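Researcher: Structure prediction, please.
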Amino acid sequence: MCGIIGLSSYKDVIDDLLFGLSALQHRGQNACGIATFDKVFHLHKGLGLLSTVFNEQTASQLDGKIGIGHVRYATQGGNDIMNAQPFTSNFPFGIAMIHNGNIINFEELRKSLNEENHYLLETTNDLELILYKFASLLAKKNLSNLQVDDIFDAVRKTQESAIGAYATISLIANRGLLAFADPHGIRPMSIGKKETPNGPIYGFASESTCFDFLGYQLLDDLKPGEAVFIDNNNLLHRQVCYQKKRAFCIFEYIYFAREDSILQKKAVAEERMKMGRILAKKVKAAGLKPDLVIDVPSSAYFFAKTLAAELGVPYERGLAKNNHIGRSFILSSQKERESTARLKLNPIRQFIKDKKVVVVDDSIVRGTTSRNIVNLLKNAGAKEIYFVSAAPPIQHPCIYGIDMAIGSELIGRNSVEDIAQYLGVDALIYQSLEDLEEFYKDEQFCYACFNGKYPVEKSKDYIDMMELDRKRNNC
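Model: Predicted structure follows.
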């Protein structure tokens, strides 16, 4: 899970890139970077948050009316500066690229690039594969008279070669700004439009909330397999290049996206409220009689608020959050996740003491964070604790850009009774996958982390390789 943005304007875009990226900081905290173009590429990237990597001096060196920006959460490739994005290539005429997602035929694609074009990869980041594949295909066109259809044809052949889940944005020197999605449209990408005195301008971003801050209108979302090109005259061109069955990530609505975003024409806050109503039926069926409902800030708010309303019990903000601590789910090690969970949450004892408490979280992955939260509530004097997960049991690793751990580390593979005992709760309620699928029966989502049905070919081979590598590294 990363956050990406690309803007093409009639004036320098660095301020808007930084402002837009700040709205996407929740999607990645390992590294960040920006590339702009004004006769030459201007690039700055580093490890850490935007506020650490960028300042007035670095921003002043990023001139250009077109640019791309990235906040990174490491999945494929190590967490070092070599793997920070954007990546650039001076071939065939200069391309800078960013992406959100994961390529699962990494070794196969790397080998073919080496054999066909003699590329020697400098990093372990799969973006480099997409960049070089696209560049090599573009180089075969008539570069002195490059047409939009030539660009789309290179995209199509790249999509056919790069297997996985990805949304990318490319800055093509002296040509324009290009975005394209994988054939299943697993990762999000929104298109924004802004009217200016010089005419309309366009941009791309992982989430629509980015455009709210920049004063853009949300125009649309990329379709599965679609490419959108904004040329140097700020004219927008669209084409579905290589499309398969849609499989948008359901976890975007449950956890990843900001609650004020609109993805695939659905408001994230409203989807969480709908899921909260489904959860309420399960809590009622279990015969639980809580005194109040609280949430684990911040992604569980709308689940909890709606659940409380459906149950007819008070909702309280029972856990105070330190907003200066990162999201524990996307930290790179178990030790970091545990220490962060202790630091970022503190119970409000006046609400908790001697109460039967429903605590709602977006999901339970490894279980250690949830157990820490339960211990906090017990120490605050909770009489009984009923833990509610807005997501069904996570039983399979996500291999499409989310580091959910290998299967053996996922607590959802155990029985609900065993999980409840591990967490130390009086009751444990999970969202039902069957209820979720029935509710969205007219939609096409990826539920692979719940049911193991991976929409992308070769997924099983990749999982086997990933789990073997993880076990070797732990030896």
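Model: The chain has 17 helices and 23 strands.
Researcher: Thanks, that helps.
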